[in-house]
Design brief:
By secondary structure, the chain is mainly alpha-helical. It folds into 2 domains: 153 residues, no CATH class; 78 residues, no CATH class. The protein is built from 11 helices and 2 strands. The longest helix is centred in the C-terminal third of the chain and has 32 residues.
């Protein structure tokens, strides 16, 4: 048994594309602006959603990331879908259908609301996926710091991101140790009841927490001994925005602002 690949793999995809060469600060500002612009779009404005989809699709093409990469990350929007489904039956409006077993009535307004929420979540997830897929984590964290995000916040995000992989590796070692000490006979069920298995899992999680806490103390002491003062430092030279960066920023912000003004006026 092993941990899922999505937990132990980097999200950044090393490629040579137009977006990979762009400044991390520019991409971060564009992504956040896109999320706000999509959020401000009223429900049921399909023309605006289509325009946003064209812009997001253009960024996806410029990123040259594989389609499978986007499909795997699209699942991040599923919680929004699950939370929005009840609106179909609670939003008043013209009746679409009624569930005979429960007597719930679905409305047109509820369906429009759910579809709008799903589109907003999907567009935001695709933009965020493009950002993390074309920007190394170090560059993204450095961009937060250069955009005057509080140093404490950017440092916390950096340590949290890096320590996720440390915890994942520790979990992998614990799983291998458990398997090496376990044995099962062919055609016979290994282990005991579900409650017993839950107890074993709980103890493993508790042990993992204690090991992670102790290791974090050692990591911080080692960082402090090497001069860590909360500043994010990278080996690569700082990248300055060029003409293409500014053109992408101005073009994207203009497109987002134009769509929002169109739907709000």
């Amino acid at each position: 048994m092993s941990l899922p690949a999505w937990l132990t793999a980097e999200r950044y995809q090393a490629r040579d594309s137009f977006l990979h060469r762009r400044d991390a600060r520019i991409k971060l500002v564009v992504t956040v602006s896109a999320a706000f612009a999509v959020t401000l779009t009223p429900e049921g404005n399909w023309l605006a959603f289509g325009a946003f989809a064209l812009v997001v699709g253009a960024f996806m093409v410029l990123s040259r990331l594989p389609v499978g990469f986007y499909l795997r990350r699209a699942g991040l929007a599923l919680p929004f879908v699950a939370a929005a489904v009840p609106l179909i039956f609670t939003r008043p409006g013209e009746t679409l259908f009624t569930l005979p077993l429960f007597g719930w009535t679905a409305s047109t307004a509820g369906l429009v609301a759910v579809a709008s929420i799903v589109l907003k979540a999907m567009l935001a997830v695709l933009m965020a996926t493009t950002l993390v897929g074309t920007t190394p984590p170090q560059a993204l964290l450095r961009a937060l710091e250069r955009l005057r995000v509080p140093r404490l916040l950017s440092s916390t995000i950096m340590l949290m991101y890096r320590y996720l992989f440390v915890i994942a590796e520790e979990g992998q070692r614990m799983l291998r140790a458990r398997e090496s000490r376990s044995a099962s006979r062919v055609n016979l069920h290994a282990g005991r009841s579900v409650g017993w298995r839950a107890g074993v899992l709980g103890r493993m999680v508790g042990t993992l927490f204690l090991r992670s806490y102790e290791r974090s103390e050692r990591v911080y002491v080692a960082m402090a001994a090497r001069g860590y003062d909360g500043t994010i430092r990278t080996v690569r030279a700082e990248h300055s925005p060029d003409t293409f960066d500014w053109l992408m920023l101005l073009g994207s912000l203009s497109a987002f602002a134009g769509i929002v003004v169109y739907v709000l006026v």
